[in-house]
Amino acid sequence: MITVQMLYQLQEVEVEIESLIKTLNACLKKLGENEKLSAARSKLFSIHNKLEELKKKQQEIDWTIDDIEAKLKKSNDDLYSGRINNPKELTNLQQDVKNMESQRKQQEDGALEIMAQIETVTAEQSAQTICFKAIESEWRNEHAALIDEAQRLKTSISKLKEKREAMVAAIEPEILDYYNQLKVKKGLAVSKIEQGMCCGCRISLSTAELQRVRTGQVVECSSCHRILYLA
């Protein structure tokens, strides 16, 4: 009976080790940057790129306006200098000035539209920056807690493994081999008896089986073939 009890206790320790390892793996997985933070960073990066593109367009419009202004000044200087006497040439120059003034107005309207967009996107960037920093702060706090939890789990697993090694050393090799073979086949090698039933397959045991278990023999369930343990 002592041997079966030791096997059951070994199984309990192994089950706990396996459970803690699964928890540890999930914890370690969470230590990576989470999707929420990644999405917030991606959105902030996208807004930043959009703002940079708008500023680039604004600069290009400013350069275009400066170019038009320079040409317009030269044309106006020529127009009012008195040097041009040919009526056709004068008319053409006046038309050029009119066209350039129209182009300048068009570019200035575009500049105002870009400025409005820049103002909107800048506000959006500010709001998203605040949102990102809040998520990042939350993640850092969670990250620190996960590191502590991972360390606690590693310590617990290490202690349980030491306990398991001590338990294994106290069990006869033949019985241990038998236990391990059943564990490979069944997942759990030892099944507890409760209310006259095997907890592994929920089948009621015969009086003879129960009697053999009580005498301390290593008894297999006739249904699921696990080692029966009566507390």
Compact overview of the structure:
The protein has two domains: 31-169, Helix Hairpins (Orthogonal Bundle); 173-229, no CATH class. Helix content is 77%, strand content 4%. The protein contains five helices and three strands; from the N terminus they run H-H-H-H-E-E-H-E.
Structure write-up:
This protein has two domains: 31-169, Helix Hairpins (Orthogonal Bundle), CATH 1.10.287; 173-229, no CATH class. The protein is built from five helices and three strands, in the order ααααββαβ. The protein has helices spanning 2-30, 35-79, 87-169, 173-186, 207-214, and strands at residues 190-194, 197-198, 227-229. Strands 2-1-3 form a three-stranded mixed beta sheet. A hairpin with a 2-residue loop joins β1 (190-194) and β2. α1 (2-30) packs antiparallel against α3 (87-169) and α2 (35-79) packs antiparallel against α3. The termini are close together.
Give the CA-based shape: rod-shaped
Q: Strand order across the biggest sheet?
A: 2-1-3
Share of helix among residues? Answer: over 70%
Average pLDDT reading = 92
Largest sheet: 3 strands, mixed
Rg, rounded, reads 41 Å
Give the amount of beta strand, in percent.
Answer: under 5%
CATH topology of the largest domain: Helix Hairpins
Low-confidence segments:
none
Question: Could you give the count of β-strands?
Answer: 3
Measure the end-to-end span: 10 Å
- Give the count of helical stretches: 5
Could you say which structural class the secondary elements and strand pairing correspond to? mainly alpha
Number of domains: 2
Assigned CATH architecture of the largest domain:
Orthogonal Bundle
What's the helix-strand series?
A: HHHHEEHE
**What is the CATH first-level class name of the largest domain?**
Mainly Alpha
